Amino acid sequence: MAGAWIADVKSAFTQGLKGQRTQRLFASPPAGGFPGEDDDILIEVLAEVYGLITGPPAWRKSLFTDFKSLNFKRHPLARRLALMYKGPKNQLSGLVLVETDDLLGGGTGDQFSEAIATLRRKYNSGKWNELMDNSHEYGERTLRQHQDFSFAMSMARYLKERA
User: Fold this and answer.
1) What string of pLDDT tens digits covers the 163 residues of the chain?
2) 127 lies in a domain?
3) Is this prediction's pTM over 0.90?
4) Domain count for the chain
5) For residues 155 and 29, what is the distance between their CA atoms, to the nearest angstrom?
6) Residue 144 is part of which domain span?
7) Is 18 a member of any domain?
């Protein structure tokens, strides 16, 4: 049994692989410009950003490359699910589900904990929420983990706001 968590990776697409576009991309400076720079400069955008078609695949490729290096296996049918196994019987010790820039995970053992700590050091997560502490949103659902490690899931908030 394992405690579950939800993480929101801050500016995930900018933390993914760079140089995935075949064409160069430029942007104007933000309102107010940059201190010490003229207002008429152009900025070359090297990182992937939200809204570009290259952003999500570059982010996933970067993240799943890191999962592989940390001994996770990608589920053959659920391609956004990374699984970690341990021991001679290949028992599941942890998993991480990726939904765009949100992660839902949980696991046990030192190998899993160290792998997650490595990912947390590499990728800047805006929020990290333990599901036993409070309920949290993930993929339009409200999730909460009970003390017996079971889960409650609801779409009531989403339906009230959107239906």
Assistant:
1) 899 999 999 888 888 888 778 889 898 888 888 888 887 888 888 888 888 888 888 899 999 999 999 999 999 999 999 999 998 899 999 999 999 889 999 999 999 999 999 999 999 888 889 999 888 888 888 999 999 999 999 999 888 888 7
2) yes
3) no
4) 1
5) 40
6) 4-10+53-162
7) no
